[in-house]
Amino acid sequence: MAPEALTRQQTDEALAALPGWSTDGDSIARTYSFAKHLPAAAMVIHVAAIQEELNHHSDMALGYNKLSVTVNTHSVGGQVTGKDIELARRIEEIAPGHGAS
């Protein structure tokens, strides 16, 4: 069964439990900061493993000490679904272990 797009209100309510995440057009996004480059790069690999597990992939941009993650669901026209919220929640769970803020 294909996921259903969330309304803006549903998305906002879900993001209330995910500090730092916000809507970015038809996506949700967050930028993490790190003390140095290597922890940011390590988190990219960890996020990629979660994405493979969930079979749901985001866009990521790695900078020296920053990692930006943008998520939406292509199969529903690039809108936000529960799959996106779940991926964001899983990323939030691992972020502290990488020293992300």
Automatic annotation (TrEMBL):
A single BP term in Gene Ontology: tetrahydrobiopterin biosynthetic process
EC assignment: 4.2.1.96
Signal peptide stretch: none
A GO molecular function held by the record: 4-alpha-hydroxytetrahydrobiopterin dehydratase activity
Substrates-to-products reaction catalysed: (4aS,6R)-4a-hydroxy-L-erythro-5,6,7,8-tetrahydrobiopterin = (6R)-L-erythro-6,7-dihydrobiopterin + H2O
SUPFAM superfamilies linked to this entry: PCD-like (SSF55248)
Keywords noted in UniProt: Lyase
The protein's name in its UniProt record: Putative pterin-4-alpha-carbinolamine dehydratase
Source organism: Streptomyces abyssalis
